[in-house]
């Protein structure tokens, strides 16, 4: 069972990725939420090229990825769930919840630690917000996240299918909640009780640091509500709000080479513990 999951993984992931990306792209054309500022060809070419770079670096630098480690852990009896007799459905549900919480906490950490913010701010420096923004992560951030995910998988010993499901769902929701799509407000209100919607995550891409440092969830919206980082709507409204961060606002900054060297450029301002951000908060 676990071995067949492992061999089917690349195809399942590629088909799901391309299918959801195409669906979001069509939806964005049919019902856009915001006017586009930058021609799509610049952003899509560079954001998609980055995915390729990220995938190659990840495959070359890790001997095993999350689903593979879950299979190995099942085999060797590593981790919590491989040492207790828990019903498999319960192990799947709890594993997926804990993986999602780990991703949320990791995202908070990437906003709070200045050196990590340098890596993660590249995700925020996109000057428009659409499905491909959800793919825009620096390769070093991708490697650190994979390291954290592997540690969680080793400690938890989740069923391999839970890890595969979690990663496939996260890939799909990341494309969905960055999409520039106009969901009816009533649908958004109900949907955001169970999943992070584009309107909820767009707040996180606001240039206002108080909004940048909120809504950290990628998948489940509950952690933000439970842990006090939830902001319902951007102060200026979704059409008027500015997307991005204060640094890196030229079209040239959207190119792949500039994205890759961005962590080394300029000060690490705007992170969650930046005194200017917290001072503004007290006003
Ligand atoms: Zn972020
Ligand atoms: Zn985002």
Automatic annotation (TrEMBL):
Keywords for the protein's UniProt record, in alphabetical order: Membrane, Transmembrane, Transmembrane helix
Pfam families referenced in this protein's UniProt entry, alphabetically: FA_hydroxylase
Domain Fatty acid hydroxylase: 93-229
GO MF entries: iron ion binding; oxidoreductase activity
Biological process terms in GO annotation: lipid biosynthetic process
Subcellular location, principal: membrane
Database matches in InterPro entries: Fatty_acid_hydroxylase, Sterol_Desaturase_Related
TM annotation in the entry: 12-30, 51-73, 88-113, 150-170
Protein name per the record: Sterol desaturase/sphingolipid hydroxylase, fatty acid hydroxylase superfamily
Species name: Lutimaribacter saemankumensis
Upper taxonomic lineage: Bacteria, Pseudomonadati, Pseudomonadota, Alphaproteobacteria, Rhodobacterales
């Amino acid at each position: 069972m676990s071995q067949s999951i492992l061999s089917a993984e690349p195809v399942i992931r590629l088909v799901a990725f391309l299918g959801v990306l195409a669906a979001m792209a069509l939806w964005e054309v049919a019902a856009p939420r915001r006017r586009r500022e930058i021609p799509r060809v610049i952003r899509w070419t560079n954001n998609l090229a980055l995915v390729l770079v990220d995938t190659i670096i990840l495959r070359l630098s890790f001997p095993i990825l999350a689903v593979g480690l879950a299979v190995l852990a099942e085999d060797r009896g590593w981790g919590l769930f491989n040492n207790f007799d828990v019903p498999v459905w319960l192990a799947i549900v709890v594993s997926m919840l804990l993986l999602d919480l780990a991703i949320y906490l990791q995202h908070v950490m990437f906003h709070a630690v200045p050196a990590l913010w340098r890596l993660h701010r590249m995700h925020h420096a996109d000057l428009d917000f659409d499905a491909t923004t959800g793919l825009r992560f620096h390769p070093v951030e991708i490697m650190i996240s994979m390291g954290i995910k592997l540690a969680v998988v080793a400690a938890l010993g989740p069923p391999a299918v839970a890890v595969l499901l979690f990663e496939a769902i996260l890939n799909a929701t990341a494309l969905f909640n960055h999409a520039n799509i106009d969901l009816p407000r009533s649908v958004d209100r109900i949907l955001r009780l169970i999943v992070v919607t584009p309107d909820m995550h767009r707040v996180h891409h606001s240039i206002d640091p108080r909004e940048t440092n909120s809504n950290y969830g990628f998948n489940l919206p509950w952690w933000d509500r439970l842990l006090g980082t939830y902001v319902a709507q951007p102060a200026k409204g979704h059409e008027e709000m500015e997307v991005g961060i204060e640094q890196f606002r030229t079209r040239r900054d959207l190119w792949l080479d500039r994205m890759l060297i961005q962590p080394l450029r300029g000060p690490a301002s705007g992170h969650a513990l930046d005194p200017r951000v917290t001072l503004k908060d007290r006003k």
